[in-house]
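Workshop exercise sheet. Pairs work together: one partner reads the sequence aloud, the other fills in the structure field after running the prediction. Swap roles for the next sheet.
Pair: D.N. / O.F.
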Amino acid sequence: MMEQKSQPQWESKVSTRLTHASADQIWPLFKDFFNLHKWFPSLSTCYGIHGTNGEPGCIRYCAGSSIPSNGSTGENPVSWSTERLIAMDPIQRSLSYEIVDCNIGFTSYVSTVNIAPGGDDHDQSGCVIEWSFTVDPVEGWRLEDLEKKYEVGLQKMAKKMEDAIVKIGSQVKLHSQSVMATTNALETHKPSPQAETETKNR
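Structure field:
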């Protein structure tokens, strides 16, 4: 009896470009491995269950409704996964993780996020976020549908990150302008050395 050949793994990569946030600004948000729920749409929960946040070997628990769970019942089934960080490269701004366990049908899943400098053709202050993954074929899914799910999720997450960074930048700018205005006002009303001398001599 001939052995049945297993299907080849699915491999894919999606990316998005940001023009108002640099790679150095975006990277710390991904490095915060235990808090992905702050940015990823439809991910309601994410927290550490093992190890130190951002160090290889640490494990996070994620739950949400992005990808339907296997055998789910009810109107709002919860999908969950435990994910182990397997590599972290702060120089290249890259991290890789694997799914340890889940209820969404993913097996042999490994994913890598890479953040590279570069905006559009006229502005190189932005960055490009690439999210690649390999996984055994998932029952009930087509690869192109899964790719679309990742693409939409990445775009929404990146937009939320960029908006937060722009907002912080605006607040810092307003604070700096306020400090500068106050300093200028004080300088304007500061007595000249001659006036100070005359006051002392009275």
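Discussion prompt: The beta strands are 10-18, 43-50, 59-64, 79-89, 94-102, 110-117, 127-135. What would you look at next?
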